[in-house]
Every structure is written in structure tokens, then in C-alpha cells.
Amino acid sequence: MRATSVVGTAIVATLFAAAAFVGCSNKHDSQGGSGNLGASASIRDLMKARGLTEADVEGALKTYVPTGKMDEYYIFASGGQSGNVNVIGVPSMRMLKVIGVFTPESWQGWGFGGDSDKILDQGNQGTHKIRWADMHHPNLSETKGDYDGQYLFVNDKANARVAVVDLSDFATKQIVANPLAASDHGGAFVTPDTDYVIETSQYPAPLGREYAPITEYKEKYRGVAIFWKFDRQKGRIDPAKSWAMELPPYTQDLADAGKLDSDGWAFINSFNTEMAVGGTLEGKPPIESGASQNDMDYLHVINWKKAEELVNAGKTKTIAGMRVLPMDVSGPEGVLTLVGEPKSPHGCDVTPDGKLIVVGGKLDTHTTLYDFAKMKTLIQEKRFEGKDAYGLPIMSFKDAISGQVEIGLGPLHTVFDDKGNGYTSVFIESTVAKWSYKDLKKPVEKLKVHYNIGHILSAEGDTVSPDGKYVVAMNKMSMDRFLPVGPLFPQNFQLIDVEGEKMRMLADMPIANAEPHYSQMIKADKLKPAKVYKPGTNATGEIDPARAEGGKERVERNGTKVDVYMTAIRSHFTPDRIEVDEGDDVTIHIDNIETAEDQTHGFTIDMYNVNVSLEPGKHENISFKADMPGTFPMYCTEFCSALHLEMAGYFLVKPKKH
Ligand code: K7E
Ligand code: CUA
User: Fold this and answer.
1) How far apart are CA 160 and CA 438, in angstroms?
2) Cα 579 to ligand 2 centre (Å)
3) Which residues contact 407 (CB under 8 A, 6 or more apart)?
């Protein structure tokens, strides 16, 4: 149970005083609100009636954002298996948007016949058209180690892909498909100036996704880290300038880029250095137990600046079209070095000063703090205690760390505030542990969460200058927190106030569409989203050469190819009738020619699986074969005006004579 803090009591006391002063009456509540509570309801009566404690009222006061006021922060949350990004306001914990990324999202018309299909197709793997993702780690673009509010990068663990979201319109602009690995996890982490977006594999497999029997695991299976080069001018990843590093077939897990002192370096932890491959049907132990034999797994310490030089010097081999720096180069060159980490680690988080790497051990009760300066010296002086099976040098664990902090049962991820504190999610205990990475003592405080916290995030937490203020516990379970909705429960984000001496639980937010993994929180005033598009803007952000303009609408026919140039404006489409022959290849080039903000139209052709969202100025190219003869209404799917229902027309497909 929560104790009421001194701060909380003070706030509530002030509130009561204020209520007494105005008599807490609703004399001018004609705008609604608490009208039905009666003119004489005092705050205390209200609390009593609703069964609220003073701590509850404090939480409400600290998170309520009245109509007309805005939140202070955005959260960009992984949408887990939904494959899309959830955008949430803080402190209100209100959902602001779902950004369609890897998965069709029909309100935005993401993946229903318009140009977004081409972006989704960039993420196809092999012969498979992939339309879902297991999104884990969103990362905001950085300049000098601070979020700059320009781009968001996300990874797909299930199909090894990375996407680029442009925060000028909150829309996905690019998906890159990893050509080397079939799954990833350590991504999408950015370097301090967003030169690179790092994506590291999870489950080892032959690079380039070749077949190799599982009995050849040690020889042929590999891990990999891709350094996707980001072209800030274009706002796109440049695959041609990207490269990769071959890693041993240990199951690489989380990663983080160094900053400040450790800029130019990256860190990836791993589990299953036993290289267990399962075989439960043949009576062998499952991967889960085989992977927990050794006392130590390996943290991979990568000097990516130097790796980049070696890549540019041509020390690579090419696999599946990508330059790959092999281990027999990176090991001896001091570019890839290992150091032990306690059993089955999970989180890997660099402190804001870049001096320490905090690793949480799922099966250990500690977080371990690796000292970057010590490791750098060990690598420079080639002071190693041995080599692994792949010839990679191993540093002594004792010499590489500055200490360990006894956290509790199942520490996973750690985030930071502005005062030198780390906040670690403790999975098995279901707590947030607050401790100081300056003095490495036991946690000063633990706060219960409900339940099974996975990731944790803090305000501007991955920057060189975190804000403190808020931490959010991202809980896997929500038993007894929300109205029951059947056996699949929502997940639970819990907003925690970390400004004062003690952590205070402020609010719960059910996440109804996914199991989120990581999220980041950015100060809202760093973003400058557009309110309307420049006329003719397509899904890639360019002015489309095929844009339709008012007065120039037309239908062009060339054999069986039909191009329709169409505009949408309250409350009609021009043209509003299209007649084609069965089998024609139809492209509708459609523009919303509105210029006023929030005047969105939608466009669908019934039964043709076509739906696009046309925000003001937006252009879409919709291509399909008119393979189904008949009479199909087409209409605007957004209630845009009083005559919205009249914003309609017909798409007629004349049957072929057989
Ligand atoms: Cu769920 Cu970051 Cu993929 Cu931990 S990971 S919880
Ligand atoms: Cu346009 Cu409804």
C-alpha cells in the first residue's frame, strides 16, 4: 500500500483550503464537469463517495490535463506484436496516436492500396510479404547525445527489420530488411549523432539465412551486428553505406551505444554462450536449461569507430550484398572484445555520462557496472585473460567492472534521472529499485508495481541529460487493475513521479493493443509536427509528379491502362464516376486539396480492399487491377462535413464479353 507523502498531504491540504474558500460550488459549471455532484459537494465528500485516498487525489492532480491544456512529454512506445508505435501524452497518459509502421493500420490507410504499400513492401523478407512485427525498441534520433525530435527508429525482432518514422508528420518513411539475420533484438539503438542505427541479431543462424544443419551450429551459425548508416539530409537509412560485424553464435541480446566518454563504442550482451541447441524430442535438454549452465556469458565490447575504418579499408567480405567485418579481423584488431557477465543477462544500459555500462542479470540478483575507462585500457594494453572458441580476446571480469549492486530478484533494465540515480526494473519482485550509480550502494528505495515489470523508461532517459521527473513501469501483467476483458489482459503502464525524495505512483494506463517492450519519453516542445502537408505530398514526403490539381482532374486511357487524376474537397470527389473495363490496370492519383488544418478525407472503393487517408495536401497513388466486374460505390470514410455522406461516387467495372 502507498503511504501518503508529506508532499501529497500538503497538496491535498491546500486543495481543501481552496475548496473551502470557494465553497467548492459549481455556480459557473455550465460547461459541464461535476455538475451532477451537487453544488455543495466538497472535495472530502467527493473523495469519500469515490473511495479515494489522499494519495489518489495527489495522483489525479499531478496527471489531470484539463481540456485546452497540453501534455508536457510524448512517449513513443513499442507496440509489440501490433507492429506499430503507440504515442502517449505525459502526465495524462492519454493515447494520442497509433503510428502504422510494420502492420497495416486502416484509419491511416496504411497498407490498403495507396503508396504506403510500397513502404511496407520494402520490409518483405525473401519471398514472403510480411505484414506484422514484434516491435521491441523505439529510439529517437539524437544530436550530441540529446533527443532532437526529428526521427524515430524501431526494430522488428520477428523478421529482422528496422523502420524510420519521420516526426514531422508521424509517418513511417522507410523499412530496411536485414539481409543477414532472421531475427534481431539489440536495436534500434542510435549513436550520439545518429550516424548509425544499430541492429544486432538475436537467435544465431547462418549469415544470409542459408541452410545449415543444426549439428553444424558452432561452425556455421553466427550472430551479427548491423550498423545502418543514417543519412540525416535525406532522412533515410542508406543501405549501400551500411555494414555489419560478424559475431559468435552466442545469443546476442540487448545493446546500447556509448556516449560522451564512450562515444565511438557499442556494447551488446548475450546469453546462451553454451550454444545450446535444444532437441527436446530427442531427449536433450531444452535451450532454456542448456543455456543456463555457465556462470558467465559475454558482454561484447565494440569499437565501432575503428570498425568503420577497417570496413573502409576493405577488410570485409560480402554476404548477401552487405559488407561484413569478419571475427578474424575484428578480434585481433581490438575492435571486438569480450568480457564475462553474470549468467543470462538482459538489460544493457550506458549511464548518461557514458562512463558505465549497467547490465542486469535475469538469474542474478545484481546489476553489474562495467567501467568503460578500465575496459579501454585493458584493450589498449592487450591485457586479456584468454580467448573464446573463435579467437576473440576476453577481458578479466574483475578488472573490467567498477562494482555490482545488489538489486533484488530478476533485475532487467535500468534508466536514469538527472541526479545520478538508476531505476532498475525488477521482474520477479515486481518492483522499481532506485539506486545511485555514483556510490554503488544497495537501492535506497523500492516501489511495488503491478505486476512483472519488463522495461522501464524515464523522461529523456537515454540522453546525456535526463530530466528526472517521470519514470514509467511497463508491466507485463495487469491482474486486478482494470475491468476484465477476457483471458487476454491489457498490459499496464504505471506513471511514477520521481521528482521528490520518494517515488510516488501516479497513474495506471492500460495498453490494449500490444505487449510493449521499450519506449522513450521526449519533451514535447522538441517536436515541430506539421499541421497540413504541402500540396501534393506523397507517402515518401515528396511532391508527387502525378499530383492532381483543382480544375485539372481527368481520366487518361492508354490501352488497358487507366489513370484517374482526382481531387477531394468538401464535399465531393472530382471525378465522381469512373468507368473501366474488367481487367484494366487502374491507377487513381488522388489529392486532398484542402488547406485548412484537420480537414481530412478518406477514400475507399467498396470491395476492392482500398482505403487511404487524405490529410490536407496529401497525395496518394492507388494502383490495382479491375478484376472484379460490378458496380462499386466509392466514398469518403472520414466524417468531414455536414454533407460528408454525399461525398461519394461510383466505380463501374464493365464485364468482359466471354
Ligand atoms: Cu522485452 Cu528489451 Cu525485447 Cu526486456 S526486451 S522486457
Ligand atoms: Cu470527405 Cu467525408
Assistant:
1) 37
2) 22
3) 360, 365, 366, 367, 424, 426, 433, 435, 443
